[in-house]
Amino acid sequence: MARFHCPLPLHTGDAVSLPPSAARHVQVLRFQPGDGLTLFNGEGGEFEATVTRMGRSDVDVLVGAHHALEREASRRIHLLAGVTANERMDWLVEKATELGAVRLTPLSAERSVLKLQGERAEKKRAHWQAVAVAASEQSGRNRVMQIDPACSLAASLASLGDAGGLRVMLSLTTGAQPLQSVVADHSDVMVLSGPEGGLTLAEEALALAAGFVPVSLGSRVLRAETAPLAVLAALTL
After folding, report:
1. Within the chain, how many helices (H) and strands (E) appear?
2. How many CB atoms sit inside 10 A of residue 194's CB?
3. Cβ atoms of residues 64 and 35 within 8 Å
4. Using an 8 Å Cβ cutoff, are 2 and 37 in contact?
5. Measured between alpha carbons, how far is 57 from 22 in angstroms, rounded to an integer?
6. What is the C-alpha to C-alpha distance for residues 68 and 54, in angstroms, rounded to an integer?
7. Over the stretch 181-190, which tens digit does the pLDDT of each residue have?
8. Going by C-beta distance under 8 Å and a sequence separation of 6 or more, which residues neighbour residue 20?
9. pTM recorded for the entire structure
10. pLDDT of 213-225, one tens digit each?
């Protein structure tokens, strides 16, 4: 059954007008009154729903039974990922959502090809959040990965404060330890990954001072958009 993100308070028996993005999707799929669909608002579980009215630009539904289904990974993974070129970043956001990351902080690192500031940065964040919503709808997740505003590594580390959990940094340095040996049974993991060209020595030093442990994925060099997804696959599947 088709699934739609509906970020509204939902309760069985409510008559609801779908938000514009969900309404457009329902109309594109040519739903008719009486057709069933699934709604989730990101607060847990999902709801059955039935279309009651198809307007020219709006759609009304009747909210049905709630099902307390969760398809989240056993580990909570927060990615801090260097911003990559446009389509590659979209792909990273989509796949990270499918693989179960709970939060992604895009980093405008020193070697990032795409530099984001001001209004352009906010438009990109909104676009990536929409990509994450669509990936949750497709993959069956009832939660949506949070996309933070893009910022520098220094600003991101400052905002973390004393946040708990294990902190690891993908690194090609000689002393980097195998990922699995460091993560072990940790349930909350923060993963730092650089952009094309990787993090600079100064950025790695900042991360080390903030408690990040250098880890390795093996002898091969993975692309900037591949490496964090390899970590997610290893830790969440």
Report:
1. 7, 12
2. 28
3. no
4. yes
5. 11
6. 28
7. 999 999 999 9
8. 57
9. 0.94
10. 999 999 999 999 9
